[in-house]
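User: Quick sanity check before I run a bigger batch. Here is a single chain. Can you write out its predicted 3D structure?
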Amino acid sequence: MRTTMQHSICPSCKTEKDISQQRGLLAVEKLWYLHRLKIDPNPKSPAHPQPDGMRRLAAQNTQWFWACDHCLAEGRALPSDPTKHNIAMGTSYAAYIDRPFTCETCQCPSVFSAAEQQYWYETLGFLIWVYPKHCRSCRKQKRAYTKLQKDLMKALQNLDHNNQEQLQHIAALYAEMGLESKSSLYMRRAQNAEKKAKGNK
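Assistant: Done. Predicted structure follows.
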C-alpha cells in the first residue's frame, strides 16, 4: 500500500490513514511545536521545530510512533504529552503503542506496553529513545539480585565473626544468590561460633 505526504500506515492498527485528518496527531503536534518553539525559537537552528514536523515523520513511515484516532479512541494507543519528554534533539513520539521485543536474558517474547512507556517517559523522565531489553520478570529478578548484593555488602561490613545470627544471615543471603559454596562456608562459621559460645559458658 503506497503512502503519500497525506497518508500513512498507522503503527498500531496497520491501516492506511489520512494523517491530515487525525485529530489526536494534530493536537499532540501543536502541543509539541509550541513547546519546542519556546525552547529553540531561532529559525536558523537545526533544532527549530516545523509546524508539520510530526506529520512529516508519520508520512515517512519510519520507526517513529503515532496512532490514528480510532486506535486512540479504542485504547489501543495512548497520546503522549511532549512537554514532559526528556529529549535533546529530534521529535517526540505522538503516541504510545505496545512494542513487542525479545528479552535478551530469557529470550522470551515480551511487550513494552503503551502504559509502561507513558510512565517511563512522562513520570520517570527517561529519554524517549530508551527502551527495555529485558522482560519485566527478568528486570524484577535483576533488581532483587542487586538488592541482595547491597544487603550482603552491608552485612559483611558490620560482621561480628563471633555472632552466630549474623553469620547465618550472610549464609542465607549467599544461598538466595545461588552461591552455595559461600553459603556453606558461612554456615560452618556460624556453627563454629555456636560451639565456641557454648564452650565459653
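Residues 138-199 form one domain.

User: Great, the batch can go ahead then.
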